[in-house]
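In the previous chapter we treated chains in isolation. Here, by contrast, the input contains two separate entities that must be folded as one system, with a combined length of 225 residues.
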Amino acid sequence: DAGVIQSPRHEVTEMGQEVTLRCKPISGHDYLFWYRQTMMQGLELLVYFNNKAVMDDSGMPKDRFSAKMPNASFSTLKIQPSEPRDSAVYFCASSLGGSSGEQYFGPGTRLTVT
Amino acid sequence: GQSLEQPSEVTAVEGAIVQINCTYQTSGFYGLSWYQQHDGGAPTFLSYNGLDGLEETGRFSSFLSRSDSYGYLLLQELQMKDSASYFCAVRPNTGFQKLVFGTGTRLLVSP
């Protein structure tokens, strides 16, 4: 299995621009998670889906962030307009669910907003 | 809500045993997990405690005591490759598959 796939791996953009991050979960996993990691805030859950439906987006700044999962094998996280404080590593993870809730993380997208 | 506190950094030498603690305040949760993250890498799952007690997986063990609001990860026979950050995480019982991560502990293993 290829694991969770994320693109791009690195993104540098200017403040005010739109940024779209992409994720392909592991086939058969019903849960998909978007996290943001910074030195100051640590690993924060932004949003997660179950069978393509949003289950919890309480961690996502909704004025500029949006997340979609149009099908079981693809999700996007969009930031519009981007700001320097959005600079972080964004991870996508997927899971089968179950008792341990083990999550499989993608390699991450390092976003830099100048 | 949930908050999980960990020491920011722990140092040890190769071959030693190290314990990374996780103390939490939570209104309720299903279990405690541990993840490892190497610099520049992604978090990877290490272990899960759904019940109180010790879970052993090779050189790594994890412990949970709900009555003490406390858990730990024990790493034995430390190797250089164990240098990484370690995160505890809980699954709140308000969001079945959601994980809330601790502050993370950076482990430095020296020769």
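Chain B touches chain A through 22 residues (CB under 8 Å). The first strand of chain B starts at residue 2 and ends at 5. Compare these points with the single-chain example from earlier in the chapter.
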